User: Fold these one by one.
Assistant:
Number 1:
Amino acid sequence: MIEKLVEKLKADKENWEKFRLFFCEKKIPAKTVLLKEGEIADTLFFIKKGCLRMWFNNDGKDITFQFFFEGQAVASIDSFIESQPTLFTIESIEPTVLFSLSRENFNFILNHYPEMKEGFNKILYTRFRNYAQLFLSRIKDNPRKRYEDLLKNHPEIIQRVPQHYIASYLGITPISLSRIRNKK
Amino acid sequence: MIEKLVEKLKADKENWEKFRLFFCEKKIPAKTVLLKEGEIADTLFFIKKGCLRMWFNNDGKDITFQFFFEGQAVASIDSFIESQPTLFTIESIEPTVLFSLSRENFNFILNHYPEMKEGFNKILYTRFRNYAQLFLSRIKDNPRKRYEDLLKNHPEIIQRVPQHYIASYLGITPISLSRIRNKK
DNA sequence: ATGCAACGATAACAATTGTTAAGAAATGCA
DNA sequence: TGCATTTCTTAACAATTGTTATCGTTGCAT
């Protein structure tokens, strides 16, 4: 995603120098909050190195429902698009390096390359389909099955992410996850 | 939705006579399958009277995950858009009267009124947001809370739909739903 | 009207998952 | 290195939910 975008921008020699300044590199330690519940997302992030999680507060406990890794674009989509306060917090899990792009600059680029709009819509569509998938898996599968699917389809998540975040993501307690992992 | 569409088409006196023939009224008894898992959705339905449910098979049990009532448009969106076999079955709960519109005619109308495309995209966007909401409620809330939310926000569903479908929709067994309803 | 299928309630028991608590292992940082 | 924090595991018990089965009611079709 970020690669394609930058490639495209670089090809446009005339404007590249200008666009380059739009992207701001940012280095953050683990457990840094990039966007806090209630704020309005005015920045799009691209992960160069590291990983993030998206979570929301539910009766004092935080519930993680999405992870992001290298190469992915990260934002509270709803909030970014509609300029509404986000329901979700975005936070680093590991020390992370990212590029940030402000909404203004994002819109500027989109207006400069209207053909990118379609690609952006596809990303949206994909993101929502992803929600639908997660939703169905919650309905269909019990925690053990969801863990096994995650292990099969995204072993990298289980490798890199602390277990209590994964437990939260699977909708169970860390204790229950521990049982599933060991009483196999 | 259907009202707006028909209103718009009627306003176009020149073509209304032609378009009118696109819509085919259909009367079906309860428990009639309109679209079966594995088929390709080539028809869009609008409900005049009655209600439907959308479900899929999971290890021999059917899981209901969406209800449709008067005035709503119904289709397996993914299948209808991408001409892929649907994962979901659409079935009437009550005796139902609906209008059907074939994909060809739907596309014909859309091409004739390109300004409708945006409205259609909004419907899509809304549908997906709805999935996201349902997804979050599955994560956040226990069955009792989900039942109470449904009772509060959609009492008409609880009134009209048999309990075992609602239990399925809530992700619990009919027995458990019965307990929740009575041990309040 | 009669019989059958669908629907809902309840009981008894099993399985799963949550809660609380304690301690071991790993990790990060001064 | 050593200390503090985070992370993970395990145990004992509680709560929730599922499973199986039975029974009464209702609605519909013949």
Note: The longest strand of chain B covers residues 61-68.
Number 2:
Amino acid sequence: MPQRSGRIPGKSRPVKSVGRAKLSDVAARAGVSAVTVSRALRKPEMVSDDVRRRIDAAVRELGYVPNYLASALASSRTHIIGVVVPSLTNGVFVEYLKALHDAFLPKGFQVLVLNSRYSQDEEERAIATLIGHHAEAMILAGIDQTDRARKLLEGSGVPVVQTMELAEKPIDINIGMSQRGAGYAATRFLLDLGHRKVAHIAARVDFRARRRMEGYQKAMADAGLDSDGMVIANLMQSSVQRGAELFTEMLAKAPNLEALFCCNDDLALGALFECQRRGIRVPEDLSIIGFNDLDYCASAYPALSSVAIPRYEMARRAAEIVLEIIRGSGSRPKQTRIDLGFEIVARDSTARRTRGSARGPRTTRALAK
Amino acid sequence: MPQRSGRIPGKSRPVKSVGRAKLSDVAARAGVSAVTVSRALRKPEMVSDDVRRRIDAAVRELGYVPNYLASALASSRTHIIGVVVPSLTNGVFVEYLKALHDAFLPKGFQVLVLNSRYSQDEEERAIATLIGHHAEAMILAGIDQTDRARKLLEGSGVPVVQTMELAEKPIDINIGMSQRGAGYAATRFLLDLGHRKVAHIAARVDFRARRRMEGYQKAMADAGLDSDGMVIANLMQSSVQRGAELFTEMLAKAPNLEALFCCNDDLALGALFECQRRGIRVPEDLSIIGFNDLDYCASAYPALSSVAIPRYEMARRAAEIVLEIIRGSGSRPKQTRIDLGFEIVARDSTARRTRGSARGPRTTRALAK
DNA sequence: TTATAGGATGAAAGCGCTGTCAATGCCGGC
DNA sequence: GCCGGCATTGACAGCGCTTTCATCCTATAA
């Protein structure tokens, strides 16, 4: 005979959440059964007004908060969207996450964000964690998952969206842009302004940054230019400070620099500040272009040129598609690989090369320090 | 007789995670019972080598991922730390969250971050959500929770840490600093440099920003100065761009400005750029100090003075205390209210007022636009 | 009046795991 | 050759909720 549920006095297990009210407590207080309380909370229109009022009162009096774990286990609905990004501090992902929150929260979903810290292994672990939490969909920044991660994702049976970049063989859905193409275009833009000595600096080089750099190298090669000695790629964390440092380093290698393509805006801003510090005029002596087009680019002096990537739109579309799949349970979207492109935003920090004016004074000053 | 578990053909419930392997599947494949698998996964040293090997193999072959929900429900251990911050984009909280992640993840806890978007109601909802998820501790940015939120927190029975500010009556544990005092000190710093016309600009004014402003006003009043017409407080989102705008607005109200205290560094950077644009020399014509001392302050040209707040340390200490409580189950720390202070970081954007040189040309130019 | 929807409520089972305790097998020691 | 003790393993109940299906009651039609 199964024993009466409840705690056996003197032999109770270590109680965690002491005295926390549960469904049956509310039910007892309202004088109804537990099922009715459950219903009243989820589909209030299914119970009578009188009962609903009594239950509401009981809930308030007891400070009842439903146990989400039990609910999720019983219904196999977690309302969790799993997200993995490589960084929580990078401005790009900050806005990307904001877009995801904005899209999912109003629809009753929680967004569970895990940080892979630019490591494939940590990403794999994060993915396993999210699968363990039974996330109803998975949104990943990047396309470079490990084999095991791919297997796990495929086995999970939930929609997976890879973003930020275009994949050759997407796991499921892919919304992105060509990082390589964007790197090529940014470099091409500088070349088209008449610059020949175009350098590239990068920090925290991950897969995406690497492909941007490849774009830079291709554009240089296509223009018949040598990019050897014009690249500094650093694995340390990117920051404004780092931008100043790498630019300084570059100046030592290539004092007659004409244009600088920075892997991201932080580096570009740091380089700009360093120019001001050294009296290098931007854009007269040096053209600078960043990447990502963060908020501050437009406000800087001179306003920074950059490459705008559709980070908000990528997140929005990912959310849209995921919600559609979850709703329509199973109806896959017709298009599963979407290229959202990018845009070169030309501002005051880049200008056409003017013969003569630039060369002399700048390099002198640049070397002075 | 309870029916045999398993799906009744033709009448099965809507299956969510089709065919996802569970503990019993692994057990069957390894030829052991489910409990043994559970043990092998959690305390490998408790099972024999042979069994462990077979189980590991089965896990791999089936791509088994434990159902975290079921595990948490059964053990009443979620390993989740609940965190509520008012913004996911503000640089301060970005670093604060990073510190929390760094502290908790290595200890086997997940950090569940919810965004209150500077709204008390949303914060209350976030807190309820976290309680529903049975977070094992709660770390909140700020001290201004609603009454119901406080009740929920007290009823939850888990440690609660309020951070970023010092509370009169903490809910539980409080690690912070005096925002008001910091505002006072920053203003005092400018006054001590000989400035009289000291203005304050603020955006996205929340409780903390308001108290910083009160500090500013008190410092002005204590110095016998009038702060009327020297303050612009804006409720819109803060950004570099906004800094330029508010500074421009302030210039119209107070053309003979000598020093500017910005509510945060983004505004200060925007104001700095605007000065460059207008040919206002910093610090000769105008001293500028920001707040938070974000990374880029030190790199800007001129380097921005700011007020450094111990955001990393607040998070670290909060995590430390929480971990101690969870471990030692019940042993409260002796000190439950910790003041971590702040620091005025004087850099090149602030300087002693020099008679004459400043006044004339600057105001002219300032008014020019 | 009696049959008959249809709305409101409840009883039972089970989601996938873990805690507890009992059962089994094997060792050396007497 | 029997027993205590240790190392392994398994059976069972239950975490707090939802799903399913049965039951009850009232209102309406016949």
Note: Chain B touches chain A through 58 residues (CB under 8 Å).
Number 3:
Amino acid sequence: MEDSNRRRRASRHTVTIQDIADRAGVSTATVSRTLANPEFVSVKSRVRVLRAVTETGYTPNVAARNLRARRSMKILVVVPNLANPFFAEVLRGIDDELAGAGYDMIIGNLDNLAEREARYVKLAMSGQVDGVLNLTGRVPKGDGRSMAELGLPMAGICAIVPGQNSPHVVVNDRAVSVSVAEHLLGLGHRRFGYISGPAGNINEIERHAGFLDGLRAAGIDGKAVVRWPGAFNLGSGIAAARDFLRRGDRPTAVYAASDEMAIAFMKTLLTAGLEVPGDVSIVGFDGIEFAELVEPTLTTVRQPRHNLGRMGARALLDEIAGTGSGARIIEMPATLIVGDSTAPPRAERPSRAPAKTAVPSEATGGEKRR
Amino acid sequence: MEDSNRRRRASRHTVTIQDIADRAGVSTATVSRTLANPEFVSVKSRVRVLRAVTETGYTPNVAARNLRARRSMKILVVVPNLANPFFAEVLRGIDDELAGAGYDMIIGNLDNLAEREARYVKLAMSGQVDGVLNLTGRVPKGDGRSMAELGLPMAGICAIVPGQNSPHVVVNDRAVSVSVAEHLLGLGHRRFGYISGPAGNINEIERHAGFLDGLRAAGIDGKAVVRWPGAFNLGSGIAAARDFLRRGDRPTAVYAASDEMAIAFMKTLLTAGLEVPGDVSIVGFDGIEFAELVEPTLTTVRQPRHNLGRMGARALLDEIAGTGSGARIIEMPATLIVGDSTAPPRAERPSRAPAKTAVPSEATGGEKRR
DNA sequence: CCCTAAAATGTAATCGATTACAAACTGGTC
DNA sequence: GACCAGTTTGTAATCGATTACATTTTAGGG
């Protein structure tokens, strides 16, 4: 009976280092050394230990090892919305880099809900991860505690969180948004709309500011730009389109702060019988793969998604290793990709540039798709 | 100097249960009890402990707790391809369910590369997760060891892995693929193409078999169906389209085993100047959000993505709790959603059904989009 | 055969919690 | 004041590894 009990518990993860030690007739220390530093172990014990290991199928309990070593070999990745294909690709980049260093990813998906942050602050507090990669553009907090005050190595991707003493890997949202404005102005547009990200979001603020900066340089008042609230998701694009259709004074060009919003906006207009780019020109942001697959293909700002992830992960690994330099900003290039969703407005003549031509800016040169 | 050393190490996660015990003038046992079972602790010690906890900001080290409890409160989710929006949504469902039970997700992304399986077999072996959710339709293996022989609680989502003694949450790929065939036959199509999933993939096999079954019932030989190899991704759709364009004997209707392939296939044909559904009707599989956003909207098989995730996670939690029933199959409904990408072939007259009408089958009734 | 340095091994502390068990304390009753 | 039952608390083992330090073994030289 006692034996059957033991066997039941054995079903999971029973062979321990002690079992191997007994089997091989050595101490646990020798077993551990054989596995970690075989050069310090005599050939004789080495083979005995190794045989015991293969015979039993022993695998060290990593949880125990990590407790001893005060590390977990796990990274918490806090992501605003897992369903957004932009982030999915960034995650792939992160994972590629982490895998090389032996780290695994725990995904902290917020689903765009700030109240979910607390769960991951708790996770980070309790010593279950060695570092945090933050893709949210804000400092996650909860239970009165902020993730910043944990003293855990962190790195930010996609957005610079002000006042954070940690590296950030970003694109220059503002500068490339100026290029967007210049591109649309160059096509001859004069009445603009903007579909925003969530209020307070840093990327949103920068993209909006850059767009208005660009327009202002051409003498267009920011107040004249129609602004639809959004949350980077498909629903926001649809809602913006519904309002657009109700209006008398329709903009001829709309900049959406994400591709998902741009695509949903465009589709809703097309379904309503409008033409793109004939009636409206549309520009997105992110450069997700589907931007090239919609009809017409979307003009968008392409971010180096995979590399944002890789570089962010690398920066975090440096912080963990202690070789990082704390706060610093790594800027990756973003590129305006001109698709078929932008053209001169129907009534007017193009003022400078012909349709479908990239407008380079000092920050990021435009580039023809393909 | 000793003190400065202590302080340096303190930077991360220093305050331990012993510190609290000292501060409150009680033993570690009392601290632990205060936090877990306060009813067994006198009010006097309780307040002293609690005060010490708030003063120091103590958080229990979960790694240590888990070592003692022989669990990790983490689930490994093995996913074929994180960038596929279908899986992203399943993951959200999984996370919603796991969160309620206090579990966190470690993502095992294979990027469609079988050689990456070994990494996660190792992870699962080493006692770092309490269970595995497998979305891959096969048993991950590596280093000569298969994930099945680990004795870890497992559950499969999306595909039934033969011979596995674990629950599986799936849709009936085969039955709904018969409906796809019936829908296309009903529109009058007689020449068909099929873009497949990866060779050997179970979903692929079932979808292909169901499609051919449906065609065979109408007297169409499976050998007459053009079959393009694919891997569920965008590239496969493009490749298939390139071959399609080269052919003389073009099918009039193409069934793609995933939406991504269908969308890429469609876009490539449109770009080449063909009309959809005028020249070719196209059907996808999965029901990702972008299927509704492409032009024309895609006819596709909608899977209950979020619920597949939820139910799979729930089944796994049952297995972990010991209340599961081992092998069993939970079938969720899949629905053929008729979009604008299917219509009667141009030359022929429709034989039975008019265009854009759902063809119900005994397995899954068709349903008009919206 | 002894001595010494180098090599190999073992002992036991440690990581930070939980918990069985024993011990100490409390209050009430006679 | 003794006794008992019920509370409360502390001691120490435990989870499964790693590793500093001590100890033993080995090899080689004289």
Note: The mean pLDDT of chain A is 89.
Number 4:
Amino acid sequence: MSLTDHPRTAPLPLRRRFLQDTGMELQRCTVCGIRGQSICNAINDKELEILAQASSRLTFPPATTLIEEGSPAIAFFNVTKGTVKLFKSLPDGRRQITGFADVGHFLGLTNARTYSFGAETVDTVQVCRFLRPQLETLLTDYPLFERRLLTEITGELAEAQEQMLLLGRKTARERIASFLLARMMPPSPHADSAVEGQMVSLPMTRVDIADYLGLTIETVSRTLSALRREKIITGTDNHGIRVLAVSRLEDLASGQDNR
Amino acid sequence: MSLTDHPRTAPLPLRRRFLQDTGMELQRCTVCGIRGQSICNAINDKELEILAQASSRLTFPPATTLIEEGSPAIAFFNVTKGTVKLFKSLPDGRRQITGFADVGHFLGLTNARTYSFGAETVDTVQVCRFLRPQLETLLTDYPLFERRLLTEITGELAEAQEQMLLLGRKTARERIASFLLARMMPPSPHADSAVEGQMVSLPMTRVDIADYLGLTIETVSRTLSALRREKIITGTDNHGIRVLAVSRLEDLASGQDNR
DNA sequence: GGTCATTGTTGATATAAATCAACGACAAGT
DNA sequence: ACTTGTCGTTGATTTATATCAACAATGACC
């Protein structure tokens, strides 16, 4: 199956009803705050209304299924707010989260007629949805859009390879260290310099972290506690942690230093 | 870094001297037996000489380094014969093979200025090499070529996600079963029907299998022995195995049946 | 303000796979 | 034909992490 197939349109497989933003469709993309970070950036300012016509903006509450594993692949999403988790499952319920799609990332690209993975919102999520025929049109009419998509997916593949190294060869401690580093926010210029340590945002639960790192929730919890005890990280808030010793964490992540 | 960067040309990082096919360059692609299976298929018959000019065909002995981890990303390869392994390593030598590129597959695509992975031949390998500026030209001038590449890499990503599920959540037995199934040859019409069982080609060593599946060589060896003992597979040849019970193996691979 | 469900933490024990170790099969070279 | 090195197999033991179990913290809801 190739990307050039045009499957018939069908209702989106959603467990809950979603919210659809109304009005001002034609202006939406022009004012999109994250266009600079996303594939939409590849489309000319003057032609933005084409993008607006091709997409619709939707808002979903936490824990909403965006993509059901094995369901018909009819849409493609670009995340404009929040975090979406992508995963694959085994018949007995074991699950592997293959990635978190944060702001600016896309999801839903596939060659097959059905999705080989699932997707669920972690927190409140806003996306731009492109139906497949619309995506085809953009790809064909805007070479820069296609090139940008190729670049993005090449990056995804590199991340996937890094994650395979983590899952296949790293210890629990190394996995947690790598995860925290990968999710570390770049130090913002407006950062509260009175509070020390680099912020790490963890909107997902311990279950999600465990399913992403190929561990159990107990091991995740114990390892985070150990790092806290060793003053490498701080913070009692479950969804926000601060890294006190970035370089220690970097050594840990690459297996330089274990104790 | 984007695909549109043109890094300066530099000598290829090869431990050994490679063999370069000479003469008849312009005809080479026309007679390429595997074009139908590869990205080159996206280029029109009449324009094949453009492809021939953009690429050079090279032959390498087993265990040749095609790509050194971290070296400048100057080339892109299309495998026309043999098998190449792709991998990532940790400073202490732990290694994860992220994939095997068999006939028809490409390798070497990256957004960065350097490769984030290594590549080494498993057996005798023949490739078509495209230097990066040449690849750029093809991508820009032949939309079908670019589309084909996007389709291929989308498939690679799906495979990577499947492998993450394997590495993060499957048992040793499930990993071996999945691996054998994935490498099972499609039953050829000329197959020797006197010999029962589906052929599985394993050109790589036990070390490579272990590094691909996130196991040790001992576990790989023990698990294969167990499957042989249970009459699910046969064959004493280390690089060729026959699957006797495909459906048993499928159940095993998806965690349905373990004993 | 109490009940209940959800999420996370910590401790005790079990286990799958790693590690350590010995050896067999085979091919290359002398 | 013997040595040497590579590769794979099998057995004994260790260990990192899973599993099992109890409990604490939090927030939703009546």
Note: Confidence is low (pLDDT under 50) at residues 1-16 of chain A.
